[in-house]
Amino acid sequence: MKVIICGAGQVGWQIARHLSGEKNDVTIVDTNPELVRRATETLDVQGVVGFASHPDVLARAGARDADMIIAATHSDEVNMVCCQIAQAAFDITRKIARIRAQSYLETGYSDLYNSDRLAIDVIISPEREVAEAALQRLAAPATFDTEVFMGGRAQLLGIQLSEDCPVLNTPLRQLNELFSTLRAIVVGIRRDGRLFAPDPGDHLEAEDQIYVFTHVEDVNRALEIFGKQTKKQERVIVIGGGNVGLTVARALEARSDRVRVKIIEKDRATAEAAADALERTIVLNGDGMNIDLLSEAAVDRADALLAVTDDDKTNLLVSVRAKQAGCRMAIALVNDPTLAPLMAPLDIDAYINPRATTVSSILRHIRHGRVRHVYSVGDAEAEMIEAQVMTTSPIAGKHVRDIDFPEGVLVGAVMKGDRVMKPTGELRIEPGDVVALFAMTKDVHEVERLLQVSIDFF
């Protein structure tokens, strides 16, 4: 597959890293020669310096025979024009654009995006993706990472193990025997900074970060087995009243269990706009770093604080201050993935990486085969892939034990119809089944081979 990626920032670079690692023909375009040079020197990609929306630049990037264009520059308008030029001048089949401004995404203007007007096949909204990720973190407060799969019937949980975890030093094979009715599988372990897919004989250690794929009905039981308590979120403080904070507050207001939400926003105009848009949420205008303002918001009685300003350092420091003041849980929005190792020492419970959520959304639309969902794990170290098994797939009709999966791949669950099943060696995978696979990045290409027969990526 030949792909042009417009924008060599973090999102463009990560997408290029994924696609080039799977032997696709990738060209990355950016006006910044340093970013292009970084991409071409560290990845197996070609680079073009220039304005991605200019036809001659796209032509130099190979648009005449490209299969797909992914527009992920910092400008919504440039991304739109890239897709328009790709359609009108080069007839590129698949066009994906990242669009931030919410006014472009309002339902009343949805008919703008078709081949006769703005030729965009898929729109990725980082703010909406991040807000959804924040809501999922709030819904699973004992986890540092979480994502929903299989139409809401299954969930990936990231759990930090502590010294009091009751199943430390127990081989995973024995865990399956002890809790035979638990529909959950440990698919990934991060130990000493390295993520790997475990073998049945591996055991768990204190300070491990594990990824558990579980039936949604078994989430609470799985958390308890790994030493975590579940608690209902009744009082939530949101730092930042922009698009992300506003979307989260609206979603919490719409819940039937009446969560009490307070927003702290530094900019007065943004705070007033948030107050006008919300019904029950209390909006305070001021600096979330101010301990007096946090006290006024009753941070010591809050079940969770969500820091989603556009400044990483503010989000981290507010989270630390809130935890010191007695807040039970703190979640920080962090753009810089190199700051992730600081979360545990700073006692921050979970973090959201907007670039990772955007990358996951884009990957969902470019994977081969009948891929329904993709979630990027860690710093693009692995993927959780949900896909439907086709009749011609090499795994169709085989028992799980007979499938030659790479050592970096584990089956998290199999869904037959509406029934999510724990993968045992005796389970036969049939055409039409939906499988959830944890795959280290180096093994994704082999997973795609196992899931599909043609190179059709639609």
Total DSSP E strands: 24
Q: State the helix count.
A: 13
Give me the CATH fold name of the largest domain. Answer: Rossmann fold
Radius of gyration: 23 Å
Mean of the pLDDT scores? 87
Distance between the termini: 12 Å
Helix content: 25-40%
| Number of structurally distinct domains | 4
> What is the overall silhouette?
globular
Biggest sheet descriptor: 6 strands, parallel
pLDDT < 50 runs, ≥5 residues = 453-458
CATH class identity of the largest domain: Alpha Beta
The CATH architecture assignment of the largest domain turns out to be 3-Layer(aba) Sandwich
Descriptors:
29% helix, Rossmann fold, Alpha-Beta Plaits, six-stranded parallel sheet, 458 residues, 26% strand, single chain, alpha/beta, 24 strands, 13 helices, 4 domains
